[in-house]
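OP here, attaching both records as promised.
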Amino acid sequence: MKIGRFVLAALLALLLASPAMAQEAVDYENVDPSGQTVTFWHQHSRERETALLEIVEEFNTTNEYGITVVAEYQGGYDDIFQKMVALLGTQDTPNIVVAYQNQAATYQLVDGLVDMTPLVESERWGLTQEDIDDFFPGFWQSDIFPSFDNQRLGIAPNRSMEMLYYNQSWLDELREQGLIDFEGPPTTPEQFEAAACAASENAFSGATATGRPYGYELSIDASRFASWTFAFGGNVYDAETNRYTLDDPGAIAAMEFLQGLFEKGCAVFVSEQYGDQTNFGAGRTLFTVSSSSGLPFYQSAVEAGAGFEWNVAAIPHTTPEPVMNVYGASVSLPAGHTPEETVAAWLFLKYYTGTEAQAAWATASQYFPVRESVAAGLTEFFESLPPYQTAFELLDYGIAEPNVPGYDFVRALIDSEMAAIMDGADVAETLTFANREANLILDDQMAQLD
């Protein structure tokens, strides 16, 4: 999710001119949500919208309170964000809205969202401890905001994860030629480098595209930066101190590693949108790192291209266990509505994130479900897309990127500095500068709360 820097600045100025919503503590235990109609703004289209509407219809026809959810497509994430900013401080916001964590944090600068904690913990309406324990820990934690007194400003209906995509057939060839000494996907940076460098000089025999072979195609993106930093034992943000840590030793080591791959000719930039996916499918690129949401598209690319054996794995790491970058928009409850509407909206979210609905949603959307118990109902889907199961089994290792306001600005900053590093800029100096700028942005955002 990307918004132009100047557009976002204008939106934030509009937001901060809005009156803060006065929120008083509500005793939800005695609220009656019967007969309420609530609106849900979402970004899903085509097959995913069809699947979502089926879930909504099932809830509408089966819930005991006669609640009606009206799901409305409102464009992409950026479109929804812009509409929300214009409406915050009024009663014209939807009852439920899709929002990335940094968007939710921005809304909360003017108390624009309901803290779901009392609803989650409610004896009458809340989740049991067994339910909470069924959520993948990283997914559950990602919507609790330390910068807002640990309020819960959303709940995850699905997630994606950064994965290493690899051509197993090509790796087998490189091993047979004595160019690498490991089986399966690389698990360490050293193995990854050895294979990427070997592939850049030894084309895959089954390739259907001509041209120079690539060991690794890197997409310049803040999520790639975070993923490689996590893999090298670092982090990009410290929730305890509410400070960015872009110059963390792990981040420096990760960027020096990638810079070295470029210097040795073992890695190249992705030259066009989804170009790495296309080249991977044609057998021209050995490794890519991308979102798990691309799994069906990679499958199609391989089937239409070189038809080799492929899979996904954790990004090669220096940590004892993988550290996986999970992300995705959550669903939030805008403030300004009656307690009856809020409880009704919450009951839909409780249903939407329940095991039965999650199994249907995961199969249709090909996102990851948020509950571990869903796996039992995904056997046929696992068989149809084996890499999905491989990725699913890594979800317990997931952590999230920062859920602080202004992260859009910081992501743009990271993109720029990451590109400079791959072009040869000094890593430590560049990340020290980036970290200083990122924390200035954060300070500016958080000052709005004073």
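Record two, same layout:
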Amino acid sequence: MKDIDTLLKEVKRIHFIGIGGSGMCPLAEILLSLGYQLSGSDNNDTETFRRIEKEGAKVYLGQTKANLTPDIQLVIYTNAILKGNEELEWAKAHYPCFERAELLGAMSRIFSNCIGISGTHGKTTTSSMTTQVLLEAGLDPSAVIGGKLPAINAYGRYGHSQNFVCESCEYNNTFLHMNPDIAVVLNIDRDHLDFFGDLEHIQEAFIKFANKATRTVIYNGDDANTVEAMAQVTGKKMITFGTGDHCDWQAKNIHVPGGFHSDYDVYHNGQFLCHAEICVPGAHNILNSLAAFAAAYESGAKPEDICRGLKDFHGAHRRFELTGTYYGVTFADDYGHHPTELQATLRAAMQMGYKRVWAVHQPFTFSRTSELLDDFARVLQIPDKCVISAIMGSREVNTIGIHAKDLADKIPGAVQLDTFPEIAKYVTDHVEPGDLVLTLGCGDVYKVNQMMVKIMKDKEANAES
């Protein structure tokens, strides 16, 4: 069978299995814009599913082999499709088939300035920042992002330039299909241990990713794990960012007063360049924005345009996303699912001046919860109140015997409730005006956020009537 790069040059008719997924839809949009004829299926009737239909793809709700017509020349599928899926099994037997990551890798080679943004934490925020900066600089990027960017109301876009911003995920070595022109490494931490096993193997993956860059590697000069790994990368233009004097791009005179605004001075090669302001909370976003600054600058953006884009960026979907204030209680939702991410988000929340901060956390996967149990227990003591749901196993079976109660028992005062209705009732019964309630997790914990918002919204409406 021919490789995907060759096939993309030869075919015009492509079918997507799982076309409505947030990672699939932007790729389909870009291919449509490049002139390919697309069809696709999904089991869920979502906003992205209907969006791609409006843009010209023939879509099928439900996944059967009847969706596969004789004119199809190439099939792309998401790894979220379960084994035994009738449509995928038939496609693999009768058509050239490639997984989404392989298509993303091929697309990274179509554009001459692909910015691959990687790291254990901060990928979506930094990819979103970089995309918005390039948009406002008039550099018209294409993009594939892991979260919805409000500026474009989508997970990606097609631009009429050679700039391509691509969130690059390390899990399952997905990012090793790529050949970015600029590889950004935000940080390296112990995560996805069910796949990698240990930190050394995680570092090895990032070394391979950086070595696949065609020109430049931009990496966190403050992060010891990253610095150690990037020392093994050769033949690239190596650029560091951070707060230390040794960094090529340095944030100095940092001001993080709390709330949603921070500012700092940008220094390049030891010289003052400009003053930057950001409108997303937390000290960790100083480094995310500095990485975006460096990547945009390397792509031809002017400092004043970069600063304007950073100031206009107000976050991505499910990244400390405010969902409403009702009856005096503020609700927000965040994708954080690793102790390092929870720590950064909760520390930022505690500095924002709320009466009390509630963390409603849904642990994700049994392996991560077990491996990092003590770290989770430590950071979930940061807020005033902590509520923990049942563990969402996702792709895993609980062969370890770990339970959410094991985590809750290590956190003084924590409440453990398995179901979302139980959690929504408990929290809304005990919150007070002036509180912030923050749901945290990469599963479906946003649903309990929606439940709580509805309860408090109804309570507010009833009080006014």
